[in-house]
Amino acid sequence: MxxxxxxxxCGIASRSEIAKAARAGGITVNGIPxxxxxxxxxxxxxxxxxxxxxxxxxxxxxxxxNKPDGYIxxxxxxxxxxxVTDLLPPEYRKMGVFPCGRLDKxxxxxxxxxxxxxxxxxxLAPKSHVTKSYGFCVKFPLSDEDIAALExxxxxxxxxxxxxxxxLKGEREGVIEITEGKxxxxxxxxxxxxxxxxxxxxxxxxxxxxxxxxxRGEWRELTSDxxxxxxxxxxxxx
Length: 238
Ligand code: URA
Prior knowledge:
Layout: H1 3-9, H2 15-23, E1 27-29, E2 32-33, E3 48-50, E4 53-54, E5 62-67, H3 90-94, E6 98-99, E7 108-114, H4 117-124, E8 132-138, H5 144-152, E9 165-170, E10 173-178, H6 185-192, E11 197-205, E12 208-209, E13 219-221, H7 224-235
Parallel strand pairs: 7-11
Antiparallel strand pairs: 1-2, 1-3, 3-4, 5-7, 5-13, 6-7, 8-10, 8-11, 9-10, 11-12
This protein binds uracil.
Uracil is lined by residues 103-104, 107, 184-187, 200.
């Protein structure tokens, strides 16, 4: 692959910055200064050093973030609201990391971010049936009939939700597990039983749980085992 592609995909610098650094002798490959950014390198074998720092090549980044209130699940927002990628260091934004699915502006908790479009697509594909669980609070007590209706499926505006599971923790709070991700799904489900969400927080996404060590707004990279678990979750035959 081209030297400038390798370095830029790591989020270290833009192609034009790389061309400039190469001209100035700031890039070496296996110890030899390389002045042309289009030379071919083998990222697995060649030792590339950019302005004194070894470049560890990787194409994809996988992150877990504890989404705080008020952030939009996007990489930019036309109205100037803060977006979840604002919470990441610039190298991830340069790598093209984006949120895997949406959480509403006021929903908190587990958000996955990656630049791996294939994995993201598979995780969100309805046929993958990846389960997500959310802790919730509602305005009014939920009756047994409400729970039965929600678990069976309710009409959220021309679409009847698939069966889900609810575990109540009190008469106005609990955990709901869903296997789909329609726009405002849980909010609309509660409205369908004449109730209102007052707090919503994603706790799990497929096999992964929100890391309790992450405060709101904090993030960390997924471990290789977590990435494997996510990939496997999309291959399971349901
Ligand atoms: N359901 C909602 O209503 N909002 C979310 O953010 C996620 C699921």
